Each structure stands twice: as structure tokens, then as C-alpha cells.
Amino acid sequence: MAAVTAPAPLELGVVEEKGSSLSFLTDNAITATINETYASLAAKRKAMGLTNPGTVEGISREVQRDVLLTNHMFSGLRCDVQKLFSLNPLFRLQHGFAMGSQALPPWQLMCIYGTNRVFMQGAYSGDGSVTAWGNLRWTDRFVTKTQAQIDPRQSQTMVQFDNEYTGEDFSLSVKAITPGIMEGGLTGIFIGQYLQSITPKLALGIEGVFQRATLGTKPETAASYCARYKTDDWIASGQILAAGQVNASYWRKLTDKVEAGVDCNLQFMPGMGSAMFGGPSREGSTTLGLKYNFQASVYRAQVDSAGKLGVVLERRVAPPVTLTFAAEIDQVKNTHKLGLAVSIDGAPEELEEISQRIEPAQPPY
């Protein structure tokens, strides 16, 4: 009986000896205090009912991306022909043709593939440039985003890596743009962003930037601060950027189909005033925009303090065909821009029926 039970104390003694060699990392007063403090803060944050505030980049997304014409204005003629092969996994091919536009290439081929965890998109333009995007979702909260662009007209290739973590009441992002270590040191642009919900309606954030073009140049750093206040009917946000730039935006939902947004940008430039040794000059602009959502169309209009008036109308004339009309008039410079686009979606009949049930909640393109 003793021979059978004798090895047990010896094995337990070995396990305790192995465990005790690293126990000082977790079994100490400092670690215990940190764990208790974190658990207490997590419990208080959960009791307050805090939600995720979004990201620093999208702090004014309702105004900049949805209402205003920043991402919707174009000029010239454009035609997009899309072919949807499957929804799960998502696989789509798109041909783009443009004429009379300085921003869009004359011809472009784009391919999109996506699942719940992986998203890939590539575009090849007629001028020889190649752009690729890729997202990998490691978990439900952590995602890595990559982007690369090769342009034969430029000597350097642009590469970007973005790691984003979405918590229950905060968002953390670390971004690297064209990083390099081949010169014997770290070069490129590195951006860190953090946005935290303070109350169920208020969120505060900070952004830090580190930039170094080459090892022979002095590194540059900058810090920006932002705030976002959200209610059921309106959202206000503000940013204090480096070099004395202040940006404020206000979004309000007037009705179920009408949204309005105001964006104000103020730039302080020290030492550029008209007075001798004089004070800083102030330059600013204000933009007011409206968005109307109809059953089969979306209408956007904006006017700014510089005298520009722009409109964009998107209308689905048939299930596979969408027409887009864009116009901009500059009263001060006496110039104008006009744009007309046609988008044709092609898909098998069963996929068209599914897409028609999914897409009405989104603006038709």
C-alpha cells in the first residue's frame, strides 16, 4: 500500500516547485491591486450602460460620409458594370469606364471577395496602377486591415496596416503607413487612436501621430483630441487637431427620410496676421448639407461659405440600373462641374431576389 501511494507526494512536490518559480508574477500585491482596480472599473462601466462609440476616424461619419458630398461628387461621364456571382461567400466583378474626369481612370477592373472573417478587394486601372485591400477578422472584436497601392508614376509604393480592436465601450486602433526598417531605423507614419465612452451619450478620444520620412530627418509628432455627443435625434462632434486646426460638426435627423448636417473648419495660422509682429490669421469654412431618402432615390445637396453649391441625385430606374447625376457651381470662381453615371448590376435571378430584399435599407447605388 505504501509503495503505491509513495510517488504521489513526490509528483505533487514537483508540480508545486515548477509552479512556484513563476508564481511571483501573479501572486503579489501589485498584480492583485491592478486586477481589483480593473475589475472594479469594468463593473462600474457595465453598470453605466456604456456602448461602443465608434472610431476616431468616423467621429463625424454621419455628416462627412452620409450627408455631405465629399465621397459622392464627381465630374464627367462614368459607367459601372457589375456582375454578382454569389452572396456567401461574396464574389463580385466590376468594370468601370470614365471620361472627362481627372480623378477617375479611363478604365478599371475590380474584384471583391468576402466572408464573415476575410474580405479582399483588388483594382487594376488602365494607367497601370494596382490597388489592393484586405481585412482579416481574427475575433469578433479584433480586425487587421491592409492596403497597398502600386503606381508606375510614383517611385514609392504605399502600404498601410491598421489593427483595430472594438471593445464594449471603447475603440483602439494602431496604424502604420509605409513603414520601413531597411535604413537601419524606423521610418514611416504611425498613428494611434483611442476613443472611450464616458457616459451613455458622451465619448472622448485622443490621436497621436509619429512621422519620420528618412533617418536623416528629424521625427515629427502631433496629438489631437476629439469629443462626440450622441442623442436619439442629433449628434455633435468636435476635434482639436495639430497646427491649430479646429473642426466641429452637427448632424440631426429631421424626419424619417430627411437628414441635415453642418461642418465647420477653422484654421489658426500663427504669425501670418496683417498687423506688425502681428497676431495669428484665421481661416475657416462652413458647409451645410441635406439628404433626402425617397423610395427609389437619394438626393443630396450642400452649400458652403466659399460660394460652392452642389447636388447629387441617385435614382434606381430599374432593379439592375441606377442613374447618378452630380453638379457643382462655384459662384466666386465662376466655374462648374457636371457628372453623369450609369450603374448596371448583373446577377442570376435567385441572387437578384435576395439582393432586392437586402439592399432597400441602404442607399441605392
Automatic annotation (TrEMBL):
Provide one Gene Ontology cellular component. mitochondrial outer membrane
Look up and give the membrane topology term.
Multi-pass membrane protein
- Keyword Transport assigned to the entry: answer is yes
Keyword set includes Ubl conjugation: no
First-listed, main subcellular location of the protein, grouped into a coarse class? mitochondrion
Q: Which GO terms describe its molecular function?
A: protein transmembrane transporter activity
- Keywords from the UniProt entry: Membrane, Mitochondrion, Mitochondrion outer membrane, Protein transport, Receptor, Transmembrane, Transmembrane beta strand, Transport
Q: Where in the cell is it found?
A: Mitochondrion outer membrane
Q: Which BP terms does GO give this entry?
A: protein import into mitochondrial matrix
Q: Which PANTHER family match?
A: MITOCHONDRIAL IMPORT RECEPTOR SUBUNIT TOM40
Q: Which family does it belong to?
A: Belongs to the Tom40 family.
Task: Please give the name of this protein.
Answer: Mitochondrial import receptor subunit tom40
